[in-house]
Fold these 4 entries.
Entry 1:
Amino acid sequence: MRVVDSFRRSVRCHGAAPAVRTDDGRERSYAELDERSTRLAAAVEARVDDGPLASLGVNGPEMVESMVAGHKRGAPTVQLPFRAKPAELVRMCEAADVEVLLFDDAKAGTAHAMLDRGSFEAAVHAGDADVDVAGVASYEDVLADADPSLDPELPRDGDVSVFYTSGTTSLPKAVPFDGEQLWYGGIQGVMEHGIDRSDVGLLATPWYHMVSSDAWIYPHLIAGATVLIQSDFEPTDTLELVEEHEATGLLAVPTQLTALNDVQAEAGYDTESLSYVRTGGSVVGERLVERTHEHLSERLCNTYGMTEAGPNLSFARPEDQLDHPGTIGTEAHTYELRVVETAPIAEDPDPEATVDPGEQGEIVARGPGMADGYIDNPEAEAKSFFGEWLRTRDVAEVDEDGYLYIVDRVDNMFQSGGENVYPVEVEHALEGHDAVREAFVYGEDDDHWGKVVSAVVVVDEGVAVDGDDLDDYCRAETDLANFKRPRNYTVRPPSASIPRTSTGKIKRDAVIDELGG
């Protein structure tokens, strides 16, 4: 089974129902989404045969149409991260052999710079703005002129989507998926949240991410539900959309949830329609869980995953997080996870060398929804994929009940006095303080210890908290070993937040550079 097969079922059964709704009032029924994606697929086929199409734009119906078109062609739609610089985007397109560039009004300037730098067979502009660039076609004209049907031999048996990793530790890597792999992720989302045709799922995260696509857009399209699209995140607008459209589900990363809770605490929008909120991408602390229960929904689902693995490797139900605070849950429906003895980056871990409950090890995973590798990056592929297993490089513990707890990335670990310190573990402890919004922990050079634990802490507005207060908290209220306690603190106001990626991961190298490291 492939995503396109389930999508066609939704078209047959719910053709007149809304598939996509946007924050600017546009709507596509399933029948309309089907027709427009078919025309786009036919237009691209006529121009470049099986050549990849790259889409660059903010959240919008045209981006969803380009996704579905890739499934109908059996040729990749390359989902470009729209916050990247033109030169980097051109390199991404070159690595994936992109031949057609589709872009919207919001990213027209970036697209123009890409067209100047790169080599594309065709370019298409979706929007109302004037585009004074030779050879760029109008999206609506392209659809109007296209064949309304496709070659019956399509789709090909090949990759249909290309995603990019977050690039927090290296340049983003291109990860291809076929329609069957993505179907496993999509149907997993349907099962996890019980999505049906009555649901309205609000997408507040960038569409191009794996989680936005395979954990949100595809599950709703598979189920015949409605995807409510916010073009660009702004917390007040998000809450207004929930209230106006009676959204039943919301996808938001932890940093977005923090902003939503702040606004909701003051404004009090009607969020009673929300059956659940789905989050992930970075550690979800107990304080964030409590605030989300208070202000948005008592059903906060926490997930863990990575681009290469599909939408999520584990899933924590709301009740799991109450009984097992800090957990990322248990393995998701279509995956097998193991916590095994860590190995050097240059060596493959042994999937049979599982650790005992309470011990730390590295998560490895396998399942039919995972990617098979990277595009044109054999060195990185050899470090991540071995046999049927995927190496996550995430250190975790598993408890007696089988619940997983992320400790940190293998790459982030440093030693202080010969002892291993994982920054995320210390950050999570600090974020348990009532006044702490977020924390960043790193190893600062020290003549005696080699490195000492140091922390940058962002606190609530108007709260007087200093390093001594935080040290007292770590001693009295956390389980941190003495060698893990920060020895140096930098306390910041909310306006000096810690830089993160669009999925909520801390840009560690950027923070260390800022600190002069």
Entry 2:
Amino acid sequence: DHKDIQGNLYYVRYPLAGTKEFITVATTRPETILGDTAVAVNPKDKRFKGVVGKKAILPAVNREIPVIIDEAVDPEFGTGAVKITPAHDPVDFEVAQRHDLPLVNILNPDVTMNENAGKYAGLDRYKCREAIVADLKKDGLLVKIEPYGHSVGHCMRCQTVIEPTASRQWFIKTEPLAKPAIDAVTSGRINIIPERFTKVYLNWLENIRDWCISRQLWWGHRIPVWYCGKCGELTVSVDDVKKCAHCGSAKIEQDPDVLDTWFSSALWTHSTLGWPDDTEDLRYFYPTTVMETGYDILFFWVARMIMMGLEDVGDVPFSTVYLHGLLRDEKGEKMSKVRGNVLDPLDTMDKYGTDALRFALSTDVSPGNDINLTAARLEAGRNFANKLWNAARFVVRGIETEDIALNIKREGLGVEERWILSRLSRTNASVVKLMESFQFGEALRQLYDFIWGEFCDWYIEFAKIRLGDKDASPVPVLVYVLEASLRLLHPFMPFVTEELWQNLKKRLPADWQKTESIMIAAYPEADEKAVDAEAERVMAAVIEIIHAIRNARAEHKVESNKWIEARVFAGELNPVIIPHAPAIQSLARAKPVSFGEGRGEAQPSENVLALVLESSEVIIPMESMVDLKAERKRLEGEIAQSQAQIASLAGRLKDKAFLAKAPEAVVAKERDKLAERKGKLERLKEQIARF
């Protein structure tokens, strides 16, 4: 991990050989002066035109090093002249390669100074820094020290500052491998989702460097190279080697390093199928269709699988790469053990349920975008599973086996049934389309809205009113919609859907028993014939009326067991809405519900609440909802309370001391509170004006 830290920038004079002049460089690591092999300036920087090609004397060790020019130097950094330490800086290493500079390694593996550090040998790197700075100051070579913020590499596990060091490693020349991998994507043989990562992929491969594949670790695949102690030659072999391939000596030793984990991972697409043998599995399963992984390893894994697949097998390993985002905490920060913000999945599943965790991870997922995992999402998943469980229990209780058929006959169905079947068909079609385009989060959201918001909240409630109606029983449609919904939802929440599907299947006729598990049941196909725009129009109007009356009751705090009066004006929709009066009465607790001719008759007046809706208008006598005197008194009290809160918040936001000291987030929160209180006050004034 790279972290921004506050350090120092040390300005150091390097004497120019044979003169009394100096060239001043700036560095954040003065201890690495001991490993310098050059001073570099930008070729366009005219300030140093007279010193390029001269020799500088390296402080502390008095070694001569050249002053060179290189495009990598930033003229704006420090003095414009930089020290080149090839053994301990990746950029400097590349400069050294271009200018044929030697490498001087000054660090031991334990980051103490080695024999190349002269009198500083054996010192810890930071103790060496202190000693070098003291000596530079004593010799008059330290110009100044400035505070300087910069990014420094740290170990992800122990957070120790990492010191780059040049070492001998094994590499793969990747440019010949990268060209076919680039062509595989630009030609369309491989499609990357989301598309914006195609540019990232191509940028990496077009600027690829040789791949270091050796690692100094205790565990891994050993490098398949043996060194001969007799002739000094190398033997490379897939099989274990007993003797040198060059001189036949048995005095051989295998390289102690192991392969980079991404090397063996890059072979995964074909090594798992028996490659290099021409196996039946390899012929059948290679290439596969979709490769799904995180965008953070697009280069480390995906690009390398493509390169290796093309090189080893001669074909792309997959046709589609689907990239998901990273999982973050509630604040959007990356989860890590160091930060202490990691959620243990086992504990989370134990608390909320496995399906709830899957729901939380899926509802907001979209290709390539990160996900913030919050307790609210987990609770929403648990609540959804509970809602589904209760709905299924209600449906199963109402089943009479002999009356249930696999196929619903639409002739003679009521408007409610035609409506829910139409909504099921539309949802089914949309979900399939979304899943085929990898929009899994939106697919789950639409299923959630349909199952909870339409099937559970509305159709089941409509069905309860008519459960005893043998001529128009809603049970077959309840079963049909529940069963299809469980199959639609199964990929997202497999455990609860399997359990409920098995319970449902036990109570159905024999032809339902043929499929052992919902996992192997066919995914639902949308029935286009079930789409019924008229039924949707009628039920949208009915639901809107019920919803509006319920909101009015809640706004005026009407007790749940109290019945109120309502008069509906639906114009041309009256004939199709009037048959639903019993449902409106039952679900809105409005009795009587009467219907007036035309629209535009719902005029607000004293003691009357007029609700103007999209498809109708509703008038509710206030006296049917509340005690008018008591309600007015309650509203006056709430108005006074709101006015006091507004005055307090406004005063705080005018306080210069508060505005100066409080964090921006706190000030913003107070402003939001003020806006919310003002909105509430306006609503209260509108309510009291009706009396």
Entry 3:
Amino acid sequence: MDRADLARHWDLTVRELAPLGGGMNSQTWTATTDQGRYVVKAVPAAQATPLANGLALARHVDRAGIATGAPLRTRSGELTARHDGSAVAVLRFVPGRPLTAADQDVIGTTLGRVHLMLRDAVAEWQPFPWLAEDAGHLSVQPWIRPAVSGALRAYRELGPLTTGALHADPAPEAFRLDRGHCGLIDWASAHRGPLLYDLASAVMYVGGMAAAGTLIAAYLETGALERREVVAALPVLWRLRWAVQADYFARRVSTGDLTGVDSMADNAAGLADACRALTG
């Protein structure tokens, strides 16, 4: 991807294009243009539909008042363009500092507001949960398949949960705080499922159930979910979220995927974290 490629697909005059890095599932660049600053994201062509679905949700939330890095449409009116085996999107740059685990109140409040904004969003999604117990990569270590199966079994034993559109990976660094306003970027993993899955993801990233009291309380204050549903089912969804993490890193280990990391040791570390959470 170069400046000429961008200008061919988007109505932009690109002055500078620089690698951004940081993504484990995509390649990214910052684009300085006469029209403003943007982020360019490229994913494998097989992920074009999930990316477009996520961008549509980002656009919905952005219009409702939370900055998301909404996509700029191509010259032909699409959310993405195909280039060299990839699906490419140009996203509006969202200013602000990435949040950390110390910002639990902001994370919980913003996530709850996003869920309320997405209540009426409609899209086609892969059925939840998106785990296959018979997947070959779950054999890379002996504990993985039983742990994933156990997490899925516990989830299936729950009663009906409140479902909706999900960000699906609300890590602290996906939130951007700028002059009192918090945005939420990185929508390429968006899905549909129990809203508790997003809350469980946020809880996982700030240190687990025992450490996330402030985040959970802030989320509940928004009214996105009833307290009784959170109390009854969040621990089960937290385990399911770790099962997804185990599946993700097992696949990367199995295929030798180094996207966004320096070495296989980083994938092994992610798998070890999941092992501690699911078997410890």
Entry 4:
Amino acid sequence: MPSFRKLTPMALLAATANAAFGPYFSTGPTASGVYIYSSTATITLPNSPSGAGSGYDLSLWVGMGTSLGDLVQSITDNFNNGWSVYAYTLKSTGPNSQEVIQGPSKAAKPGDVVRVEYQYVATDNYKQTVYLNGVAVSTLTTNDGKAQGWGSAVECAATNCGTVAAHKWTNVQIVLSAADPNYVRTLGLAGGATGSMTTSDGGKTWNVGTISIPQFTF
């Protein structure tokens, strides 16, 4: 399970005593007064990691950090050689405390196609929808403030997840509440991850296309 401590809009990956992270793509924060209105991303699930230890828990996800310190992060989770997918929010309840809010979980397998959509639906509320091979299998709406950063992660609950196969997030698009032409300048890449951002409407709609994550060993 994801086990972040405090999340800031500056980056989705925060220091944690319990989890380890691999390559990532990150953006944010948005310009003052601008927030993430919606996003979509698709992953074809890779094989389970090789050489993992007993009880390992690997998560591949894209998520959004919000103004309230929440992390909106639908999960593709590989636990002991099996995939599952579900909507998930890690909600900040204090400076050093969080609450897990999880939607229904659905079993999956390598080769399955998972699409994750985030949508601002009401004042400070985001709806997550997870599609498995085109069918909506998990939804969740939480009150999170306004999303100011978006990124991907390869997360191991400990350090025993072995070698994670290379994989890609495709058809990635981030739509902002208003144009932020400088949002591209917040792009960060680590661990050999690749990806780029383009806009054709002055910075409101950002087309990322494909985020490529290389093989990684914990």
